[in-house]
């Protein structure tokens, strides 16, 4: 028998000022005992088969004739409670996702020493990078979270910086560093601080991401054109005629990597790599 939340059902009835909730719970439990004994499926509660089996049991055991209708009414009320709980749960999950989606990328954790600022930094950083809620991360293994945090640090996506009193603009943004060579000659160079390094890295990642996206879009577009112009016509005809200015040729076969060609005089010893055709397509498009 499926699990029923009678405690939650009672609280639901009390919250909506439903005076008969105790009676409904009693009827629900009594009816569920009969359903369990008869091996009935509650999903079929409105069918004639369910009703006949239930009432037959009532008659054989001289139970109250309204028990079936009362049980059915109590079960309907329970389903209202259950659907409302599901709706609340979905709204909560949706809210968590929206909260995570709209969370500020600039966050300040404050408090006296020993209150968990460093500890919580790991979850906060992973929440931003992996687009997960803090609740989801709380349910994960702490060692696994720390491992992923360290991997992101190694990849340059996270920089853990501890500020102290001597930490100034030069270390955070940029500063001039004095250097001397073996002859004692001084020279000065501008050295990026941690914030500027991260900013440059973020910009580089963003530009690379756009470049990869553009390359991916071009590949998808080429595949779409290739499918429409070459592969689809070959499904309905043996050879595809390609006309040029002074001559023509046929495409008669295509596999995963190669296009097989036949000249106008019947020569079938020619072929073209699909990757080469894609490169020609890209050059033509760029020009």
Task: Walk me through what this model shows.
With 287 residues, this protein is of the alpha+beta class. It is 59% helix and 12% strand. The protein has helices spanning 6-15, 21-38, 48-60, 67-101, 117-130, 134-138, 142-155, 169-172, 194-236, 274-286; strands spanning 174-180, 186-192, 240-243, 248-254, 258-263, 270-273. The strands form two sheets. Strands 3-4-5-6 form a four-stranded antiparallel beta sheet. Strands 1-2 form a two-stranded antiparallel ribbon. The longest helix is centred in the C-terminal third of the chain and has 43 residues, at 194-236. The protein is flat.
Features:
287 residues; 4-stranded antiparallel β-sheet; 6 strands; flat
Counting DSSP E segments of at least 2 residues, the number of strands comes to 6
Give the overall average pLDDT: 84
Task: Catalogue the unreliable spans.
Answer: none
Largest sheet: 4 strands, antiparallel
Order of helices and strands: HHHHHHHHEEHEEEEH
How large is the count of helical segments? Answer: 10
User: What percent strand?
Assistant: 5-15%
The span between the termini is 70 Å
Shape summary:
flat
Radius of gyration: 36 Å
Whole-number tally of structural domains: 3
Main-sheet strand order equals 3-4-5-6
Helix content: 55-70%
Structural class: alpha+beta
């Amino acid at each position: 028998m499926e699990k029923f939340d009678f405690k939650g059902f009672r609280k639901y009835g009390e919250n909506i000022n439903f005076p008969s909730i105790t009676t409904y719970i009693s009827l629900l439990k009594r009816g569920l005992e009969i359903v369990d004994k008869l091996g009935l499926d509650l999903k079929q509660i409105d069918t004639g088969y369910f009703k006949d089996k239930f009432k037959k049991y009532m008659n054989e055991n001289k139970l109250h004739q309204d028990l079936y209708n009362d049980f059915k009414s109590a079960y309907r009320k329970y389903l209202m409670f259950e659907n409302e709980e599901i709706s609340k749960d979905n709204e909560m999950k949706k809210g968590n996702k929206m909260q995570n989606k709209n969370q500020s990328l600039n966050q300040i954790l404050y408090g006296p020493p020993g209150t968990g600022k460093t500890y919580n930094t790991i979850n906060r950083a992973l929440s931003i990078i992996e687009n997960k809620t803090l609740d989801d991360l709380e349910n994960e293994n702490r060692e696994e979270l720390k491992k992923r945090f360290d991997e992101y640090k190694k990849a340059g996506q996270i920089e853990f910086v501890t500020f102290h009193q001597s930490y100034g603009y030069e270390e955070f943004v940029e500063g001039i560093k004095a250097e001397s060579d073996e002859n004692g000659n001084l020279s000065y160079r501008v050295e990026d601080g941690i914030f500027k390094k991260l900013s440059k890295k973020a910009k580089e990642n963003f530009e690379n991401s756009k470049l990869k996206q553009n390359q991916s879009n071009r590949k998808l577009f080429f595949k779409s054109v290739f499918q429409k112009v070459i592969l689809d016509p070959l499904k309905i005809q043996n050879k595809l005629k390609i006309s040029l200015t002074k001559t023509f040729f046929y495409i008669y076969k295509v596999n995963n990597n190669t296009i097989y060609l036949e000249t106008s005089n019947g020569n079938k010893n020619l072929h073209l790599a699909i990757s080469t055709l894609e490169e020609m397509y890209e050059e033509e498009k760029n020009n």
